[in-house]
Each structure stands twice: as structure tokens, then as C-alpha cells.
């Protein structure tokens, strides 16, 4: 179950076993993509507030999830 289109189709399956597996896989994919994008944004100097605004969450939430004690780029 690695193809995004297949996962999206399977997430709406009437079979809960198929649907729930697909939902889990989509959640894991979204988490990996978010981690990559946040790391890339920080490397390019984005602030936690800019990232939070783009993700629609608070600065504290994004920093707690992705901060990891690293200080890259500029801070506001």
C-alpha cells in the first residue's frame, strides 16, 4: 500500500480493515512529509511562527512537535 491514489481509494473502503490500514498509512505518510517540509523550512530560515501559520497550528505546537532542541536559522 504505497501508492497515494490507491491509499486514498482504500481509505474510503466499506471494509473497515482495508479502510483503517489505509488511514494509518496515509497518516504516517503525512507525518513524514510534514517532517521533511518543516526541516526544509527551518534550513531556509523560516521561523516557527511562519511554519505554524502555514500549517494552521500554534507556534508552540509546531515547535513542540519539531523543535527537538535544534536551533537553525533565525528566530522571531
Tally of extended strands? 0
**Number of helical segments with 4 or more residues:** 4
Order of SSEs, N→C?
Answer: HHHH
| Proportion in helices | 55-70%
- Taken together, the total number of domains comes to 1
Low-confidence stretches: 72-76
- Apparent shape: elongated
Q: What gap, in angstroms, lies between the N and C termini?
A: 41 Å
Average predicted local confidence, pLDDT: 89
Strand content: under 5%
Structural class: mainly alpha
Q: What radius of gyration results from the CA coordinates? A: 16 Å
Structural account:
By secondary structure, the protein is mainly alpha-helical. The chain has one domain. It is built from 4 helices and no strands. α3 (48-55) packs across α4. The longest helix is centred in the middle third of the chain and has 28 residues, at 16-43. Residues 72-76 have low confidence and may be disordered.
What are the defining features of this structure?
single chain, mainly alpha, 4 helices, 76 residues, 68% helix
Helix and strand topology:
Layout: H1 4-11, H2 16-43, H3 48-55, H4 59-66
Helix pairs in contact: 1-2, 3-4
Short structural description:
The chain has helices spanning 4-11, 16-43, 48-55, 59-66. With 76 residues, it is mainly alpha-helical. It has one domain.
Amino acid at each position: 500500500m504505497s501508492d497515494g491514489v490507491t491509499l486514498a481509494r482504500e481509505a474510503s473502503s466499506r471494509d473497515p480493515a482495508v479502510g483503517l490500514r489505509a488511514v494509518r498509512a496515509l497518516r504516517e505518510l503525512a507525518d513524514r512529509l510534514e517532517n521533511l517540509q518543516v526541516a526544509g523550512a527551518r534550513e531556509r530560515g523560516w521561523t516557527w511562527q511562519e511554519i505554524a501559520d502555514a500549517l494552521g497550528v500554534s507556534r508552540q505546537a509546531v515547535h513542540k512537535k519539531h523543535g527537538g532542541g535544534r536551533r537553525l536559522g533565525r528566530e522571531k
